[in-house]
Protein: Polysaccharide Transporter, PST family
Amino acid sequence: MKVIKNYLYNVGYQVLAIIVPLITSAYVSRVLRPEGVGANSFTNSIIQYFILFANMGIGYYGNRQIAYVRENKDQMSKTFWEIQIVKTIMTLYAFVAFEIFMIFYTRQPEYMWAQSLNLIAIAFDISWFYEGIEDFKVTVLKNSLVKVLSMIAIFVFIKGPNDVTLYIIVLALSTLIGNLTLWPNIRRDLNKVSLRFLNPWKHFLPMAELFIPQIATQVYVQLNKTMLGVMVNETSSGYYQYSDNLVKLILALVTATGTVMLPHVANAVSHGDMHKVNNMLYKSFDFVSAVSYPLMFGLAAVSLTLATKYYGPGYEEVGPAMMIESIVILIIAWSNVLGVQYLLPIHKQRAFTFSVTFGAVINLILNVPLIKVWGLNGAMWSTVLSEVAVTLYQLWAVHGLLNISKLFSSTWKYGLSGFCMFVVVFGMNQHLSNTWISLGLEVIVGILIYTFLIYLLKADIINQLKKLVENKIRR
Structure:
């Protein structure tokens, strides 16, 4: 039950973290216009490279290491401060690198300096610690409050197309304040540690191993926006960002299992219980398949009308891009289970690193020709094909450790049910009036069709839910 509670907490926060920008983006897209939205997206994609360097793979590494030692409070306290020292030093180096970069980069300096607040904020992010001890309630409740306050600030202070800098500052400050709210709990959760007993640099090389896959992952997230801004225009970068926002909102419902399961699996690995690890993996894979198929097909079915309905006139290009990108909901869901929930906890970092590096190379190779030919849609296809490459390699990497047939035993049922749902909902979307009431009706019909079909096909998720309900009743 703890895993389920943590999953719900994490889903709640991940959804809120994307819903707030989504709620505000319907307003911001009209106030700042495509040009202002594009400028924010493009400059943010640049600062993310420096943030990536500052993070140094700490998200996955810190989460896992804390999970390994959380039953020994002294050791956990020592591990926390060692990792945090490395992170602080790397952030300082990253900021110096940014200042050097700004000597030579003269395009939109005001926006870039405003974005640098995001780099400062990363030094105070200790969410990895609370993920490692599986205390998701702390991060969720405190950050949720900050997100809501930032949403209010946007509606109060952002009034016209000249407020791009202010908009960037509001978003960055909300991240900084959210990170700072986690620190008061540290005195309660850790013991005092003498500096002379700390050895932070022993963590550097293991972090570097996980730094490489984070670099590669950022290729999908940031390089596409950067290349669109350079090769096409900044407005296309903004279209990519807005499509990505909606897709990532849906994806958060699935990938939240990775953040929750990583420390849980890592703790099982530390006790040598590989049978339990594999069983958790099979259940997790089946769960994310059951959830991601309808989300993928559902978003694709309504995407053509959803973009302009939500963002307003001038954002017509977002719809087709979103339909293409919706494919990654399923692909990333699978790779999240195989990579984050399995390869990392069992110390298969090299396989995980190679998989995402391989995907990054594919993305870089495909980006140039596809963006030149198809622009925004080319960047989307490049992203999809790259994620497919990552997942295929990870499947190959685990084929001797897991029963692949067992992994996919029920996926055809979810795929068939999702496709049938897509046919009906897409038809409704194209023929009904483009209103929010119609969209709500389409969603309800889609849920009913999918639920009925997986029940009819007796998919594994139905049996899991029945067992969960029966256990709850017994208690």
